[in-house]
Amino acid sequence: MSSSNELARYNRSQNSGGVYPEALSCAVTLSILLSKLAYVSPHSRAGMTLTALYIWLTGSWGNIKVADDIPSLFSLPSTEPCKQHAMRTVYDNTVSWCEYAHPYLKDDKIEYLWQPIPQYFNKFFQIVISDEARDKHYEKPLINAEAKAQLFALLSTPWKTPETLATLPRSDKDIFLDYFKHCALADNTLTAIVRRQMIGEEAHHRSAGAYQRLESDRIRSKIFKAQNEYLQRIIDAATVVGDKHLQARYTVYTQKLSFSLLSATPKLAKYVSGNGLIVQYQMDTANGQQRLVACPSIPVGSRRFVEVNEVCKFVARLHQYVCDLRPLGNVPTTLDLQSSTDWLAYYNAATDRIALLFILLTGVRPTHGITLEWKYYLGRDIAYVKDKGRLRTVWICSYLQAEIKRYLSLQTVIRMALPSIHESASLWFYIDSHGQHVSLSNRSLRQVMNDIWPGVVPYQLRHAFCGLAFTCTSPYRLFDDNIDRLMGHSNHGEHLGSDNIFPETVNALMNYLNSVPVSLQLKEMHYV
Questions:
Q1: 3-class secondary-structure state, position 503
Q2: Which residues are 112's β-sheet partners?
Q3: Which of 71, 135, 220, 525 has the greatest count of CB atoms below 10 A from its CB?
Q4: What integer is the mean pLDDT of 341-359?
Q5: 3-state SS string over 282-340?
Q6: Percent of the chain with pLDDT over 70
Q7: Contact, 492 vs 7, CB < 8 A?
């Protein structure tokens, strides 16, 4: 069994914000793969090369145990809907582009949508697929069983470094074949949903995707951008090193011609050049004409996701709910529990408000940290809550700090009017009809929320906190690893005391958190 330190180190290495695989080492290993494919039979070489690059791009080698597991890729006309292992060419009157079937994990089901191939692969993929389409070989596998067996043997046997490349570093074959997966794990610009779509169930912090929702057109664009960047690292490394023996091995072969993957940066088709969106198209041949029709985007992610404008409406109603309960005049110096129920109702409503704001502005789990404890809070921007059996750091924005102080002012006045009330370990609590404090619960908050926002539960405020973070477009936008940090998404080895956080990171977190109350149009509440 692995030691605690080894498990912690492994979890940190799998998390976003880690180290990318070394580019030059992977570039050398890719050149070895391409040179091996250059020597296979010309009859099956193009299909085997395309299949090998597809396996590398999609990170599917880990699922291939025997030759029959190698995917049977085939060409489809652009009039047909997407299906597993299909590929097609799309022409938008600028540049012909190859697309492949990408599985989307939606509500625990798989739906296949078209995904544009990275730009440095497009020319080769598009030519091979177009040759199949030109010969009307639709839905015919690119390689037969014999070629699959040959490719499996090529990928599964050890690779030796050629003497001409002996002076260059080279990555382990298994690391190379998972290159895109390792890059996606380390990439802290990806959101959890996009990362899961790229690497499947192996994604670190699988629960993080349950707090987000993204349209498939935006996911498609983010995957395309990420794959291009990861491949660009390889191309740049192979180009900059200036080794002619390395660069000569980047030649790929179709049935009729050959060319280098290291040629000038390919032109992009117009439809893949959009700002953050890539629409999926289907060819419509009605009335004897051909035209590309945009397919509707599908939402992927949380069913508990709530829109920002609805959250703004909720906090405004919550504010008004407390204001409407405020009795006239000042708090009496002594509260009679029989005749002063209006002040207790007002105080309890203020308690509900501060608890709900705490969930919304910190992302704490309402099933764990509905309130702060005095021993874990010093009135500053950092506190701790008990979360899943351990302490979790919570950052508190300036607005929430001020609201807590104003709430505690009301609490102090109420407690002075009820001298018999006991001390509490919690900052906020209810006071019942007997003048005793009562701890908050997720159930009590659900009842309050249902009155103000029917059908929505407190946990969805945690979803809203996450949604605000990953959709933020302001200068205070956070990287994905810092969103994970705020949400408390961690495995063993990433919690309190197991990682370092630098002042710049703290500043970035606080700048973002201080921008959230402005985005939600939150008002100050003066209780007394």
A1: helix
A2: 103
A3: 220
A4: 94
A5: EEECHHHCCEEEECCCCEEECCCCCCHHHHHHHHHHHHHHHHHHCCCCCCCCCCCCCCC
A6: 91
A7: yes
Among 343, 337, 528, smallest CA distance to 419 is for 337
Per-residue pLDDT, averaged over 402-412, amounts to 94
Per-residue pLDDT, 262: 92
Q: Shortest CA distance to 1 belongs to which of 352, 281, 10, 390?
A: 10
Per-residue pLDDT averaged across 182-196, rounded?
A: 86
Where b means 16+ CB within 10 Å and e means fewer, 223-257 reads bbbbbbebbebbbebbeeeebeebbebbbbbbeee
Tokens of 287: 């009335």
Q: Provide the CB-side half-sphere exposure for 122 (13 A, CA).
A: 24
Q: What distance in Å separates the CA atoms of residue 373 and residue 424, rounded to the nearest whole number?
A: 9
- Pairing type for strands 86-91 and 96-106 reads antiparallel
492, pLDDT greater than 50: no
Report how far residue 22's alpha carbon sits from residue 323's, in angstroms, rounded to the nearest whole number: 59
The DSSP symbol for 379 reads S
Place of tokens 């069913």: 303
Which residues are registered as beta bridge partners of 97?
90
DSSP secondary structure code for residue 102 in this structure:
E
- Say how far apart CA 126 and CA 63 lie, in whole Å: 26
Q: What pLDDT is recorded for position 17? A: 58
- For position 494, what pLDDT does the model report? 47
Sole residue written with tokens 């700002």: 275
The residues near 287 (Cβ < 8 Å, ≥ 6 apart) are none
Using the predicted structure, report yes or no on whether residue 67 has a pLDDT greater than 90: yes
Could you read off the pLDDT of 202-213 as tens digits, one per residue? Answer: 555 556 666 677
Residue pair 186/195 in contact by the 8 Å Cβ criterion: no
Which of 87-96, 145-154, 158-167, 373-382 has the least mean pLDDT? Answer: 373-382
How far is the CA of 419 from the CAs of 333, 336, 415, 426, in angstroms? 10, 11, 6, 18
Quick one: tokens of 312?
């703004």
**CA-to-CA dists, residue 68 to 34, 64, 139, 153, angstroms:** 22, 8, 17, 12
Write down the residue that tokens 């002076």 correspond to: 167
Residue labelled with tokens 């609805």? 310
Cβ atoms of residues 170 and 25 within 8 Å = yes
Tell me how far apart the alpha carbons of residues 60 and 220 are, in angstroms, rounded to a whole number: 19
At 124, which amino acid appears? F
Cβ pair 440, 428 in contact under 8 A: yes
Distance, in Å, from the CA atom of 458 to the CA atom of 447, rounded to the nearest integer, reads 10
